[in-house]
Every structure is written in C-alpha cells, then in structure tokens.
Design goal:
CATH architecture of the largest domain: 3-Layer(aba) Sandwich
Shape: globular
Pfam families: Hydrolase (PF00702)
Order of helices and strands: EHHHHHEHHEHEHEHEH
InterPro entries: HAD-like_hydrolase_sf (IPR050155), HAD-like_sf (IPR036412), HAD-SF_hydro_IA (IPR006439), HAD_sf (IPR023214), PGP-like_dom2 (IPR023198)
Structural class: alpha/beta
GO molecular function: phosphoglycolate phosphatase activity
Keywords: Hydrolase
GO cellular component, one term: cytosol
Helix content: 40-55%
Length: about 230
Amino acid sequence: MLTDSIKLVIFDMAGTTVYDDHYVSEVLCASLALHGYTVPREAADEVMGIAKPVAIRTLLNQFYPAATGVSIEPIHQDFLRLMIEFYANAEDIREIEGSSVVFRELRRQGIKVGIDTGFSRDITDIIMNRLGWQEEGLVDVSVASDEVAHGRPAPDMVYRAMELTGITDVKSVMKVGDTPVDIMEGNNAGCGMVVGVLSGIGTPVELKEAGEALLVDSISDITAILDKTVVYN
C-alpha cells in the first residue's frame, strides 16, 4: 500500500480543505478597488494559490500595465485587513467535508499532515483556530507563503514542511491542492505523488494541463488513494 511509502501529505487550504465560495477572490478584488483598480473576479480566480503580493502584481500588470511602478504594499495591507476580518467574523467558515476525518486517519496511520498556503501566517492561524485544527492537534506542520523565499509554483513551501517534520525523501511526500499552481508546486518539488481535487477553483482541464497529477473529487478520497482503492483520472 502507498501508506508504506508516503510519510507526509501536504494540503492546500481554500478550496482543498477550507470551503471557499470565491471569498478570497472577492476580497482580492475589493482590495484592488479601494485603490482605484477594477479587476473582474474571474481574473482573480486565475491567480488563486499563489502568494498574494504576487497575485496583486500579476493582476495590475494584466489590467493596468501603466501601474508597473506602483507599490503593491498598500493594496496588500488592505487585503490582509479585509481577509483577517472575514475569517475572524464570518459565520460561513467551515472545512470542506471530510477534512478532519482524513487528517485523523492519516495521523492514525503514522502519516504526518501538513498545510501549505498562499495566505500569510496571520490569516493561516486565524483559519486553523476557527476550524479547531490547532486545538485538536490535527495538523503536524503548516507553512505560509510569507515564510519562504518563493511561493507557489516554486517548491519552497514543500521543502520547508519537510524540514520541519524531519522528512528527508521528497518521494515520500504527497501534495494535494485544487489549483494549477498546487499541481506545479508538487511536481517542481519532485513529490512522490501529486493529487488535484475538484472541490475548488481548478477545472479538470486546468489541473491536467498544469502537470502530472491524480484527479479526485475531494479530500475525502485521499485515504482511499493511499489504500489503492480509489479509481482516479
């Protein structure tokens, strides 16, 4: 069984383990709008999964090329403020069904559970606390995009999670996510398995084009993959 070779599973947050009805995209658009930049939500969807300062710069370059020299820091600070307010206060903050069950089962089997995310550390901690993952000890390691030199699709967060958990062989790592950059990240790191979930923003075509990956409906399929009992695309 794959449970004999996989020692660490690293999950994305929004769209993979955390329910997201375009909340992050809408906050990103709102942050840009506060500074006079109107960007369609569909375009914001396309930059999900990457570090948010990079996402902001990408959208400005795409829709406002004359803003090349504009500092993104004020926009990013507004994004952080609005996103923290949302995750701290919104009622509809919940995990994607089955996430905690999968975390518990992996840890029961001796497999470490990791989180990596395009969010910064402050937002990451708020989400994990709201969902009770910290209190219940369901996650062994989490890495935020502002804690590494390069966010996705670079492999830095995967390598940092390995370092913090004492995992030395990247082939014993599974990366799970719902965006093309999640798939790229896992492949760039050389993970032994990369899994795309269809519970978030990425379409099957987008995930397949991003690189080699198994595609499943949701996080609930992960334990079945490790037991080699799931049929995947």
